[in-house]
TrEMBL record:
One of its GO terms (cellular component) is membrane. InterPro entries: Spore_GerAB. Pfam families: Spore_permease. Keywords: Germination, Membrane, Transmembrane, Transmembrane helix, Transport. This is Spore germination protein. Its main location: membrane.
Amino acid sequence: MEIKKGKIGVNTALIGFIVIVFSPTVRTFGSFTSNAAKQAGWLSPIVAGVIYIYFILKLNTLLVQHPGLSLLEIYEKIIGKILAKIIAFVYLTWLTISIGLNLRSYSHRISAVLYPNVVEELFIVILLFVIALFLVKPGLIIASRVYIVLAGITIVGSALLTTLMLPMVNVENLLPITYLDVIPMIKGSAIALSCWSYITPIFIYSDDIIGLRYFKKRGLTAIAYIAVTTTIILATLYGIAGSTILSRSSFPYLLVVEQIQLLNSLQGFDAILAFLWIFSDVALISFLILICLKLIKYIFNIKDASIYTYVFTVLCYYSAIGLAENSYELGNFSNNIATYVFIVLFVFIPILISWIYKIRTRAVKALMKSNNAKKQA
């Protein structure tokens, strides 16, 4: 396990990334991609994966060229303290809203699937209490150990469900694919671009992550793994249910999992999915709270933000219950607003700052070269 002197390794950080994207993937990808790209939507993660190759290379430039600094400190070094603080505040605000969005989605799924007669707010309170007490308050090191365990369970569980679904796939539901589907596939890739952008907030902790010189190789491997597994998951969903049914379903992955039968008699595999959902949501929400506390520490220049854990947890509760009146508003906000805000904040901004860094570096080198030429003359 990559944990040393109060820090975690880049592998551990990326394992955490893999587990936190599982819940958004099975929750939103099926309906979003089928609405955007119809029967070609299952290929959308491949498009997103290609874009993320470039993104990982740009993020690698920032991280490797500024060892020992957090991502926000890197921003500060490149664009100045004021702009970095503004970006940090925007990040904090949006991630707080995102925590509320994920909490509300979690409670809605648990209520709709497992306990329809229980008030949703109760699930939010219980989850926040467990996360704050056992993951956030103990700190990143303890939480990272839990993420490694949850990642193992999530990978094995999702692989099992996918394997059981493969024999049910009807290839005719996946075809035909033509050149006319390219633009819809690009539109459908927005949900993957948004979901995978959680990798940027994770590296707000880059000053507490060791082995960043290996980030490019490990990051590209993680993206390749997620792109391939997501494509396989979507292919099984499309192959079993078809794009039309997926586009109309609130829980497309659950819809397909409920159809699994082993030996024509054994059912109930939706219980496995429910546990995987909960595990991934626990990792996602706890990691986002840890990141927000890190942002608070940076913005207000305080030594220890963990003292605000319970206060911030209460704020997250009110963010969740005030976000939307019903599941329709929640889905509309997630698909039409949150998806694109994530892309702008956590994909476009890091790329833009990497461009600024590259331009400044070239300008400095050109100036030094010019000065040296003048001295020699």
